[in-house]
Amino acid sequence: MGSGARVYHRRMADIPRIELNDGNSIPQLGYGVFQVPPEETERHVSRALEIGYRHIDTAAIYGNEEGVGRAIASSGIPRDELFITTKLWNDRHEGEEPRAATEESLERLGLEQVDLYLVHWPTPRRSNHVQAWTSLVGLRDAGLARSIGVSNFEPEHLDDILAATGVVPAVNQVELHPAHGQRAVKEWCARHGARVEAWGPLGQGKYDLFGEPAVAEAAAAHGITPAQAVIRWHLQHGHIVFPKSVREERLRENLEVFDFALDDAEVAAIDALDPLDGTGRVGSSPYDVH
Ligand SMILES: NC(=O)c1ccc[n+]([C@@H]2O[C@H](COP(=O)([O-])OP(=O)(O)OC[C@H]3O[C@@H](n4cnc5c(N)ncnc54)[C@H](OP(=O)(O)O)[C@@H]3O)[C@@H](O)[C@H]2O)c1
To answer: What domains can be seen in the chain, in order of their start residue?
Structure first.
């Protein structure tokens, strides 16, 4: 953490909530636990909850839902103050599998209902994203998930599920950061009333976002760290964001982003980091995951 960063204990009420298209709402900033080792997850999530995070993003494939569940159980935080997301993995899209997978995730999380359940990838080679989405609509109606959405869906996949069910996902969670701005996906979501969640919001540390002059200069101007400048850029664009860290000082730093604002020129300079041709992507293309 650089000098000048603001770090203090945050009250839950300080984190804004974003309204979803089904009447529910989600804390705009949370904690994602991709690649947090299962044996360490309880400790890190417990610490995040102590610091003030209330929104946790996990997935069946991360193998750490049990650790999330143990941290929730020992936190003493009322269930309705927490927002827990998990995701249906790719090999469970068909038949009775989505329901079985959801029940297994709920068991591991120690919950009766997840706040947000996502189809993790569209898996185009299997061509069963419509089946998966139809199952999620049923799971929501059965009360196993309060809200449902998708992840890594391109506009063509979104068109397919909307045509088949008439149900717009509450969110689409996609790789999104200054070098990969997801214009087409964001345009679809804005048109249909789905919220956009940003995974890899800091570029997963694979792309040197923090060394980009637009980010470094905004950080210097506000006496904040480059990570805080990037998180703030997401928040001002209305993205739902959940950066991952296993370091306490960074967990605190990533939450201290509500007492300053980037100006329009700073936001535009960071927007301009997107080469607009997809080459800023750091993770997998939805067309390559099956
Ligand atoms: N739906 C999907 O397909 C999908 C895919 C990927 C991720 N996700 C979700 O999105 C969440 C966030 O994405 P991500 O974990 O891939 O990447 P990320 O949050 O962009 O980046 C995480 C990396 O940034 C570092 N970091 C965190 N805070 C920092 C700070 N303040 N200063 C400097 N470095 C910092 C972390 O290192 P340390 O841990 O060492 O601090 C880690 O190496 C995931 O945890 C997961 O919940 C979803």
So the answer is: 3-208 (3.20.20.100)
Distance of CA 250 to the CA centre of its chain: 17
Does 202 sit in the ligand 1 pocket, CB within 6 Å?
A: yes
247 in ligand 1 pocket by Cβ < 6 Å? yes
Tell me what the pLDDT averaged over the chain comes to: 95
Decide: pTM greater than 0.90: yes
User: How do residues 136-172 score in pLDDT, each as one tens digit?
Assistant: 999 999 999 999 999 999 999 999 999 999 999 999 9
HSE toward the beta carbon, residue 253, CA cutoff 13 A: 22
Nearest-CA residue for ligand 1 atom 31 is: 250
Whether 62 is a known active-site residue: answer: yes
Distance CA 202, CA 215 (A): 11
* Amino acid in position 236: Q
Residue type, 192: H
User: Scanning the structure block, which residue is given the tokens 């679809």?
Assistant: 188
Express each pLDDT in 205-238 by its tens digit.
Answer: 888 999 999 999 999 999 999 999 999 999 999 9
Residue 197 near residue 171 (C-beta atoms within 8 A): yes
Name residue 115's amino acid: D
